[in-house]
Structures are given as structure tokens and as C-alpha cells.
């Protein structure tokens, strides 16, 4: 089982437009961050894409990814779904649409905004067969479990993927640690967690909250993501425990 981090940045990316690097060293390649998205891959080669960031096309080209077996969405904010049209080339040559899954509310919002993706239009076939997560237990050979997480006035979906005897959790965009989150990700091999900045934020996890989440879940390894321009890679690496690492675009962790 493998984690492939396609993007690790916040909604504006790093640098921000205007070449604004904030506190990030522009000479460190790991500080150049596109919007968040990951792929989980099984030993058999099956892949699930989590979120379709606005940078998805370039992310997939850089990672050498031609196909995925399913897509799941955490929520419908622009930095997590506005690259949805870049799924079209992966529909070419398939017998049917790409399976896609999200919470009931996210499904409703995605259908409202991107109807052509799910229903086809003007003779074009549908790109994704979108379904709610209710009663879904297996996707592309992965065991999949999820929970809803507080994200300011709304909720996002956290995912746990189990395959080949290993587990990866993905929890971006949350502002509170709930008991349900701790239970779902307890003992996970890799926990990928929201970590926007050091200061508290009304809709995102701070560094202290991310580290608390790692401890409470007893994650074997934790990867920080959704990092803003204040989170310099080298500085952050020096202040985190050995089992916690800052994520970066192109990071791959093979669980064997």
C-alpha cells in the first residue's frame, strides 16, 4: 500500500499569486505547494484519488498517473473539487464512468455545480458515476470507512483506507477533534492531517491540534498537509517529533 501526495498546500497554494512566499524559503523545492489531493495505491496497482484540486492536471502529469479506479471527495470547496474536469482523460477508453463517492451533502452540492460530469451532455458520456458513501464498505479493493468532521459552519469527510494489511487516514479541513475521529483513526499506520499554521484558525487545525490528533489516535506516522505560507519546510521539520513529518508535493510513502 502506498501514499502519493499530489498536493500539500492551502487554498491559495505556496507561493501565493504575486510570488508571495511568506516565511517559506523559495529555494527549498518542498515549499512549492499545490492544492491538496492524494492517491492511495494498493500492491495490486488499484488507485483511489482523494479530491480533485484545481492543480489536478499538472499533479497527475508530474506523478505519472494515467488512471484511477475511483474518486472520493472530502467536501465541495473550490480547492478540493474545481479540478474535476481533469478527470475526463481518465474516462477515455473505459467501459463506464469512473466510480465516485462523497457524503450525501457533498454529492448534492457537486451535482448542482457540475451536472455534466455526472449525467453527460450534448452527446458526451458521463465522466463519474457519483454515489453517496452510505453502505459503501469496499472501493477498488480498499476497505473504506469515513466520518464527518467539523469545518467551521459545515462538515467535511475524513477517510480511512485499509488494504494489504495496512491503513492510511486522510483528514484535511477540520477545526475540532471529535471522539468519532479518534475512534476511526485509532492505531492507523499513516495519518495525513490538516495543519494550516501555528496560530489557531476558525475552520482549520493548527500545528498544536494536529500534534494532539496524532497522539490521541496513536498514529504510527503522521504527515502534515494543507500548509500555508508561514509553514517553512525545514523549520517545521526541526520542531516536529520523529514520527511527524511535513508533507510536500510528490511525497511517496510505501507501506510494503
Describe this structure in words.
The strands form 2 sheets. Strands 6-5-4-3-2-1-14 form a 7-stranded mixed beta sheet. Strands 7-8-9-10-11-12-13 form a 7-stranded mixed beta sheet. With 256 residues, it is an alpha/beta fold. The model has no long low-confidence stretch (mean pLDDT 97). The chain is globular.
Features:
256 residues; alpha/beta; 7-stranded mixed β-sheet; 8 helices
Question: Which secondary structure elements does this structure contain, and how are they paired or packed?
Answer:
Blueprint: E1 2-7, E2 37-41, E3 47-50, H1 56-63, E4 70-72, H2 78-81, H3 88-91, E5 98-102, H4 104-113, H5 115-119, E6 128-132, E7 138-139, E8 142-151, E9 154-163, E10 166-171, H6 179-184, E11 190-194, H7 207-217, E12 221-225, H8 233-239, E13 244-246, E14 252-254
Parallel strand pairs: 3-4, 4-5, 5-6, 10-11, 11-12, 12-13
Antiparallel strand pairs: 1-2, 1-14, 2-3, 7-8, 8-9, 9-10
Quaternary class: single chain
State the helical fraction. 10-25%
Shape: globular
CATH topology: Metallo-beta-lactamase, Chain A
Total number of helices: 8
User: What is the CATH class designation?
Assistant: Alpha Beta
Can you give me a brief rundown of this structure?
This protein is α/β, with parallel strands linked by helices and 256 residues long.
